[in-house]
Amino acid sequence: MVHLDVKKVGRIPNGGGWRAHGKGSPEARAAARARTRGARAGYAYLHSAIDGHTRLAYTESLENERATTAVSFLNRARVWFAAHGITRIERIITDNGACYRSAAFAAALNGAEHRRTKPYTPKHNGKVERYNRILAEEFLYARTWNSEDQREKALETWNLHYNYHRPHGVHDGKPPASATPLRVNNVLASYS
């Protein structure tokens, strides 16, 4: 069973936002003036897939949350999970987002049963919602970022930390990768 979700986070302007310089700083005021003139930093969409048994997590920062993006992400997540020995996905659990209700996403399930959560009930997809909270607490807001590119590059390193080094309660303090059928020898290998 794989849990999917998208977390929408604000992009960081080049040079850092108000967290880097303070709310009353000249940089923060300049960014506020740029917003009033119509400039927008926009959003980054963190697509995440969590294996329900091992709690192995795969996350990418993507440009949008459209159906074609979700399908492409699902295909890359399948390849990544297969590299860890998780070759068969029986069920996929998502919320009721538009990208997961599309015909393109339904066609990309490859025989997996698609379960949707009850509307406005995120606890039904609790594993990925908890992962999103950990992601926010330990990665997104744990330090000051100077640009969106810097944060995107650090996301891959943080994923390695989460999957191979961070202790997890369900595995008696061992990381999620310890419960995978296949052990990956090179934790710095890229699966993209």
From TrEMBL:
InterPro entries: Integrase_cat-core (IPR001584), RNaseH-like_sf (IPR012337), RNaseH_sf (IPR036397). Pfam families: rve_3. GO terms for biological process: DNA integration. GO terms for molecular function: nucleic acid binding. It comes from the Bacteria. Signal peptide: none annotated. This is Integrase core domain-containing protein. SUPFAM superfamilies: Ribonuclease H-like. Residues 9-183 form the Integrase catalytic domain.
